[in-house]
Amino acid sequence: GKAKRVNPSMADDSISQDRAARRAVSPQVRLDSRFGFVVSKKTARRAHDRNRIKRRLREICRTGILARIRPDAPVDALLVARSNAVDADFARLAADVETLGRQAGLF
After folding, report:
1. How many Å apart are CA 36 and CA 83, to the nearest integer?
2. Model pTM?
3. Burial class (CB in 10 A: 0-12, 13-18, 19+), 17
């Protein structure tokens, strides 16, 4: 089949509408801050394990870190999971991310 073309002006508009909607729902979320997550195959062989770790880290950052970041400076952070993250429960991951956030001076 033929590839569907997207009007660039419409794509930009939908992105700005999405950002405006997120601000309206949750004004304390810093949209300027970004988090990246790396879980290598060496860390977790199975894709669903890698995805589970990334989902957990994303949720921890969304609920626990973004709302507490210092408002004067946006943050770009890259979290690299280690092999013990596969067996760690949510509370342990949250505690580790909290410790890293404090060490990095995010809040």
Report:
1. 17
2. 0.69
3. exposed
